[in-house]
Specification:
Elements (H helix, E strand, L loop, with lengths): L12 H11 L1 H4 L24 E3 L3 E2 L11 H12 L1 E6 L7 E3 L10 E7 L2 E6 L4 E7 L3 H7 L2 E3 L4 E7 L2 H7 L3 H22 L2 E3 L7 H8 L8 E9 L4 E3 L6 H6 L15 H4 L1 H9 L36 H7 L16 H9 L19 E6 L8 E5 L6 E3 L9 H6 L13 E8 H8 L3 H21 L4 E5 L4 H8 L6 E10 L7 E4 L3 E2 L3
Parallel strand pairs: 2-20
Antiparallel strand pairs: 1-7, 3-4, 3-19, 5-6, 5-9, 6-7, 8-12, 9-11, 10-11, 13-14, 13-16, 14-15, 16-18, 17-18
Organism: Kitasatospora cathayae
Protein name: Nitroreductase family protein
InterPro entries: Bacteriocin_Proc_Enz, Nitroreductase-like
C-alpha cells in the first residue's frame, strides 16, 4: 500500500459521470421516473428464502456505553442503533412507510448490511431484526486480506453493499450517486455507535472486489460491495499486509453460493448502462495500487476569523439522538426558533476528527471541507464561513452574491421545494474531485461520496442533538453554490447540501419504533 502519494491514473468514465451527476442536474435527472405506480418498484426489504435465521435480542440498552466483550447483546445493540427501524409512517399512499437510524433518499434504503462473525456470514434483516445465515464458517481473516491489512482478528467485519435496483427504479443511472452517498451515511452511523460502545471501526473503500462478492453471494452488477468495515475492541493492532493480495487468488478458495432471494425490481445491468459501466470500472483486482493522499484545500477565506469560544458542549445520549434524528417533513418548512449557534459550531468543529479510513493518511481528518451559511443562529453573525478543521475557527468567505444574504444566495441555486424562510443554517461539504480520481481512479467517485456521506451523518447528528432537522438536498446547481461560497476552482465541488432548521409538523402520522430497553 502506498501512503501519502498520488498515483498518476488515466481519466476514465468516472470523471464524466461526476460531471453529469454533480455538475449538470438537468442531465442527471433527465431519465427520472415517477415513484407512483411504477411497475419496477422493488420490495421494501431484501428477502432471503429458506435460510437459517438468528434472532437478535429485542432488549437493548437505552443508553450506549462501553462494552467489555462483543457478545450477542453488543451485536444486537450495534445493529439496532446502527441500521434498525426508528419509526413507521402512515399516509395516504404508503410510499415511505419505514424510517431507519440514518437518512435515505425517499426512504428507499438501497444499502444492505452484511455481518461476518466467527461462526458465519449473515445479512441483517432490519424488518424482523434478525440475522440471515448465508454461509457457515469464520471468514473474517479473508476479508481483512481483501483490504490489504493484517494484524489482530476483528470481532466482526461489516460489509455495506449497494442494491442498485432499490433506487434505480426511480433514478436510473443516478442511483449510483445515491447508493454511494448512503453507504457513507450508514458507515458514519456504525462508526458513531461503535465508538460509543468502546469499539473501533476502520473504513475500507479499497479492497479487491471478487472475493467479497463471492463470499456474500452477490452479483457485482446488481449489488456490489461498497465498503468493508472491520470492528475491533479498543487496543487492537492493525497494519498493512506484507504481501500483495490478488482478487483471483483469494476468490479461488471460496466456494460460490447462490442463496435464494426474492427477486424484485428492474435488472440494473440491462436498464442503467452508465451506472453499470462506472461500477465495473471501479472494481479492483489486487492490492498493489491501493493509495492514500490528502486533498487540496480551497483558499476562499477573507477577513478576520472567528475563534471558537471555549464552550462546554452538553453531552447527549447518542441512542436518544439517533431515535430523534429526522430529515423534516416532506416539504421542508422551517419554523422561527432560537438556536444556540455556538453549541452547534462546537459540535460541527469536531465532526471531521476521529475517523479511521483508508482514503487518507493515518491521523488525517475526513477529506471534505465544511462550509456554513448562517441565517439565524445565536452567537454567529449571518454570513458564509469555512470551518477550519484544525482550530475550529470560522473563516468569513468573500463572495459575490448580488447583494443578497447568505441563505437567499443558496435558495436561488436550489431547485424549488424546500422553504428557506427562517432557515437556521445550510452546511455544504466540499470535495476535491481531482484528489479523488487522481488517487483512486474510477473508484474515486464512490470514495468521495462515501466519505461525504459519513461526514453528512455526523452533521445531522450534531443538529439533532439540538432539536434541528437535517435535510440532505442533492437538487442544487453546483456552479451557483460555488459562487455563493466563494469557490473559484472547478475541482472543489459541493458534494452534499444539508439544510438545518427546526421544522413544523407535516401532514403525516409517524409512530416511533422503540426498543425494549434493558439497564446495563
Amino acid at each position: 500500500m502506498i501512503e501519502d502519494a498520488v498515483i498518476e491514473r488515466e481519466d476514465g468514465v468516472g470523471r464524466e459521470f461526476w460531471r453529469v451527476t454533480l455538475e449538470d442536474l438537468a442531465e442527471a435527472m433527465g431519465t427520472r421516473q415517477s415513484e407512483y405506480g411504477n411497475p419496477d418498484e422493488p420490495l421494501k426489504f431484501k428477502i432471503y428464502r429458506g435460510r437459517p435465521r438468528r434472532p437478535l435480542t429485542t432488549r437493548v440498552p437505552g443508553k450506549l456505553t462501553a462494552v467489555e466483550a462483543f457478545d450477542d447483546s453488543a451485536l444486537a445493540t450495534l445493529l439496532r442503533y446502527g441500521y434498525g427501524i426508528s419509526r413507521q409512517e402512515f399516509d395516504t399512499n404508503g410510499t415511505w412507510p419505514y424510517h431507519r437510524m440514518v437518512a435515505s433518499a425517499r426512504c428507499l434504503f438501497g444499502v444492505q448490511l452484511y455481518v461476518c462473525l466467527a461462526d458465519g456470514v449473515y445479512h441483517y434483516d432490519a424488518a424482523h431484526d434478525v440475522l440471515v445465515l448465508l454461509r457457515d464458517g469464520d471468514h473474517r481473516r479473508l476479508l481483512t486480506r481483501a483490504t490489504g491489512t493484517a494484524g489482530s482478528l476483528p470481532e466482526a467485519v461489516f460489509v455495506l453493499s449497494g442494491l442498485f435496483a432499490k433506487a434505480a427504479y426511480i433514478y436510473r443511472d443516478y442511483a449510483y450517486r445515491l447508493c454511494t452517498q448512503e453507504a457513507g451515511l450508514l458507515a458514519g452511523n456504525i462508526d458513531l455507535v461503535a465508538r460509543s460502545m468502546g469499539l473501533r471501526a476502520h473504513l475500507h473503500h479499497q479492497f479487491v472486489d471478487e472475493p467479497v462478492h463471492r463470499l456474500l453471494g452477490l452479483d457485482a452488477d446488481e449489488e456490489p460491495a461498497l465498503l468493508v468495515m472491520p470492528l475491533h475492541l479498543a487496543g487492537a493492532v492493525t497494519r498493512r499486509a506484507p504481501v500483495v493480495e490478488t482478487a483471483a487468488a483469494l476468490a479461488a478458495g471460496i466456494d460460490p453460493i447462490e442463496p435464494d432471494v426474492v427477486r424484485s425490481g428492474l435488472r440494473v445491468a440491462a436498464t442503467c448502462p452508465t451506472l453499470t459501466e462506472v461500477n465495473r470500472a471501479s472494481l479492483r483486482v489486487d492490492t498493489a495500487a491501493f493509495a492514500t493522499a490528502e486533498p487540496v484545500v480551497p483558499v476562499v477565506s477573507d477577513g478576520e476569523p472567528l475563534a471558537l469560544p471555549g464552550t462546554e458542549v452538553p453531552e447527549v445520549n447518542l441512542a436518544d439522538v439517533l431515535r430523534a434524528r429526522d430529515s423534516g417533513p416532506g416539504i421542508f418548512r422551517p419554523v422561527a426558533s432560537r438556536v444556540d449557534g455556538v453549541e452547534l459550531w462546537a459540535r460541527l468543529a469536531r465532526a471531521r476528527a476521529g475517523v479511521t479510513s483508508d482514503a487518507v493518511p493515518a491521523g488525517a481528518p475526513v477529506p471534505l471541507e465544511m462550509f456554513l451559511s448562517v441565517g439565524d443562529l445565536t452567537g454567529i453573525p449571518a454570513g458564509v464561513y469555512r470551518l477550519d478543521p484544525q482550530t475550529g475557527a470560522l473563516h468569513p468567505v468573500a463572495r459575490a452574491a448580488g447583494g443578497v444574504d447568505a441563505i437567499t444566495a443558496i435558495e436561488r441555486v436550489t431547485i424549488p421545494g424546500p422553504v428557506f424562510r427562517d432557515m437556521n443554517a445550510v452546511v455544504h461539504l466540499i470535495g476535491d474531485r481531482d484528489w479523488a480520481f487522481d488517487t483512486f481512479g474510477d473508484r474515486g467517485y464512490r470514495v468521495i461520496n462515501q466519505e461525504a456521506g459519513l461526514l453528512a451523518h455526523r452533521v445531522c447528528v450534531a443538529a439533532a442533538a439540538q432539536g434541528l432537522s437535517g435535510r440532505v438536498v442533492n437538487a442544487y446547481h453546483a456552479e451557483g453554490v460555488r459562487a455563493a461560497l466563494g469557490l473559484t476552482e472547478q475541482r472543489h465541488t459541493p458534494v452534499f447540501q444539508i439544510l438545518l432548521a427546526r421544522t413544523g409538523p407535516g401532514g403525516r402520522v409517524i409512530v416511533p419504533v422503540e426498543p425494549e430497553e434493558v439497564d446495563r
